[in-house]
Design goal:
Elements: E1 2-8, H1 22-28, H2 31-37, E2 41-47, H3 66-83, E3 88-93, H4 98-113, E4 117-122, H5 143-147, E5 169-174, H6 179-187, E6 191-194, H7 195-201, H8 204-216, E7 220-226, H9 248-261, E8 264-270, H10 281-293
Helix pairs in contact: 3-4, 8-9, 9-10
């Protein structure tokens, strides 16, 4: 496979500094060599550069860094669209606002191909706020609302060439949802498997059902992996830690199932904050999980010491 690495050094969607170092950390952790060892062709396209920002404001006084986030979203969307013409784009974040750009650009490409885009959202949060409803003002809590065409982004964010059907979004690992977002979920057809569901049923059945839906309609599948999907005991390098996340074994099983399906066409690796890491253990785990997605089997995992 032709893997295209795209650094997205964005930290403007969060109030905590550090995620802009995420792309470098993943490269230092050996992502390129790991993918090549698995037999893939790897092209590192470098980092997306944020264009000049435009002056803008919003009635919601809580919002942080709106001009910067809008500029990043436009640039990442254009890069996602261009890089998805051929090859397998891997977006190295950066906080989760990068998905506003990556997914919207990929949705445009999918629409041109006449194929539906599906999104597997591996996260502790639903990220369904709009500019009007966010109380924290941290725009990394808004990408799903944006790329599914929810109201509240007009006149600020780039117009969507194609929105993702909420019914094509599956969320696994959810465990921190506020009242407003619970209301939005009740209005939408997004499939949500929170951690209680995973505790009761495991990850195999819900993921298998979702993959069968993607396959049935020849869909393209984008995977968006947030560090806080994982339990902070194994992945501490994130500013939004929520206890009770996915275990090492659950996460690798999901990735191996995704590989076996042959359906995944692109990937986000987001919210890695190296400043909060412990000797690179979270960056190394994300590289290992990417390797499982790209073909490494359980018996092939390296022995590591930390």
């Amino acid at each position: 496979m032709h893997c295209k690495l795209i650094g997205t050094p964005v930290q403007d969607g969060s109030s905590r500094l550090g995620c802009e170092m995420g792309p470098s950390s993943l490269r230092v952790a050996g992502l390129v060599a790991t993918l090549r060892d698995l037999g893939h062709e790897v092209e590192d396209l470098g980092n997306v550069v944020r264009p000049e920002i435009s002056t803008m404001s919003h009635p919601n006084p809580a919002i942080r860094q709106l001009p910067e986030v809008v500029a990043w979203t436009q640039a990442i969307a254009e890069t996602a669209y261009a890089s998805s013409a051929n090859g397998f784009p891997i977006f190295l974040g950066g906080d989760h606002i990068i998905s506003a750009g990556s997914v919207s650009g990929l949705a445009k490409r999918a629409a041109e191909k006449g194929r539906p885009l599906f999104v597997l959202w591996l996260d502790a949060h639903t990220d369904l706020h709009s500019l009007d409803t966010t109380d924290s003002g941290n725009l990394h809590g808004t990408p799903v609302a944006y790329f599914t065409g929810r109201p509240g982004f007009d006149k600020h964010f780039p117009p969507l060439a194609a929105a993702v059907d909420p019914a094509n979004v599956c969320m696994i690992g959810i465990r921190s949802v506020d009242a407003a977002e619970r209301g939005f979920l009740a209005e939408l057809d997004i499939t949500v498997h929170d951690m209680r569901y995973i505790d009761e049923h495991g990850v195999v059945a819900p993921l298998k059902a979702f993959l069968e839906r993607v396959k049935a309609v020849d869909g393209m599948l984008h995977v968006s992996l947030d560090v806080d999907f994982l339990d902070p005991a194994i992945a501490p390098a994130v500013g939004t830690t929520v206890p009770g996340g996915a275990t090492f074994r659950e996460a690798h099983l999901i990735m191996e199932m995704l590989h076996d399906s042959g359906l995944v066409t692109s990937l986000d690796l987001v919210e890695l904050n190296p400043f909060l890491d412990e000797r690179g253990r979270t960056a190394s785990l994300l590289v290992d999980l990417t390797a499982s997605l790209m073909g490494r089997k359980v018996l092939d995992r390296p022995t590591r010491s930390f």
